[in-house]
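Reminder to self: tokens first, then the designed residues, so the page reads top to bottom the way the pipeline ran.
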């Protein structure tokens, strides 16, 4: 009937509800003297712990619903704020990035210039693009007079991955991207295994270490390249095995709404 339960160890402290006169008397103090014995017994059976739980549950679940609603509002505000951020002019990333302010600039468009360090390319799988299975290609970008940062260049299909056509870009490139941080992995995402070239989730610290770490001037800064071309261009890239960057949109999963509905429905049952 109710989805939430108390942990197995939790038992209602029976002494609070049992009919030991001294403890319940405060509940009925005004009545116990005048009501007939039978009536009193009925009243006490109504006070059985389960019934009390049933009485409390709607308030409890409604409270959870309200809490989720607050979280939802918070999240919608956050998305608005991020959308605004996304509209701002692209920033040129400074030569050395103050890591403590990266969080503030997440979802900002940024421009970085440099040369690809193809030897340290990381292929993230499994990734899907319009139903096609493949990888995301992340390559460190070595910036002249500045730190090296990590760039997710986008999607390459499984069929094209061995062609490694993206290696063709050897000169200096300018990348328009979006600043991101590590993305939380879910319960089923295996941990990365850099030694065997297996990458599953963007753990920026580990990726920076793999690319050479501090000693090699690599900063744990992660940029996702933006692709704003039309579908035709995307298909050409897909056929050639060239990475297709991400859409410049906010993709936080807005899942609080479903929780709100669940909790509110529970509370009116
Ligand atoms: C980095 O930014 C923080 C917060 O704005 C500031 O306190 C700190 O001094 C900065 N560090 C450097 C090296 O500029
Ligand atoms: C890097 O530094 C050198 C020497 O100071 C300078 O000539 C060059 O233009 C700089 N490169 C960039 C991209 O700023």
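Designed residues (269 positions):
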């Amino acid at each position: 009937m109710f989805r939430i339960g108390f942990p197995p160890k939790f038992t209602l402290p029976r002494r609070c509800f049992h009919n030991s006169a001294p403890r319940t008397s405060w509940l009925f103090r005004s009545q116990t003297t005048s009501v007939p014995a039978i009536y009193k017994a009925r009243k006490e059976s109504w006070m059985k712990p389960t019934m009390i739980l049933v009485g409390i549950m709607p308030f409890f679940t409604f409270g959870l619903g309200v809490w989720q609603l607050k979280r939802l509002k918070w999240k919608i505000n956050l998305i608005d704020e991020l959308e605004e951020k996304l509209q701002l002019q692209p920033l040129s990333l400074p030569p050395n990035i103050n890591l403590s302010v990266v969080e503030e600039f997440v979802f900002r468009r940024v421009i970085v210039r440099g040369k690809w360090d193809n030897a340290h390319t990381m292929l993230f799988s499994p990734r899907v693009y319009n139903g096609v299975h493949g990888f995301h290609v992340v390559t460190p970008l070595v910036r002249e007079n500045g730190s090296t940062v990590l760039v997710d260049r986008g999607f390459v299909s499984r069929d094209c991955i061995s062609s490694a056509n993206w290696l063709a870009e050897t000169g200096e490139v300018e990348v328009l991207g979006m600043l991101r941080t590590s993305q939380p992995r879910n319960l089923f995402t295996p941990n990365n295994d850099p030694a065997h070239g297996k990458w599953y989730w963007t753990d920026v610290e580990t990726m920076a270490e793999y690319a050479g770490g501090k000693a090699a001037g690599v900063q744990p800064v992660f940029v996702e390249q933006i692709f704003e071309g039309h579908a035709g261009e995307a298909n050409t890239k897909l056929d050639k095995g060239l990475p297709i960057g991400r859409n410049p949109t906010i993709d936080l999963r807005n899942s609080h709404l479903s929780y709100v509905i669940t909790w509110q429905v529970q509370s009116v049952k």
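The beta strands are 91-92, 109-116, 122-129, 132-142, 148-157, 173-180, 218-225.
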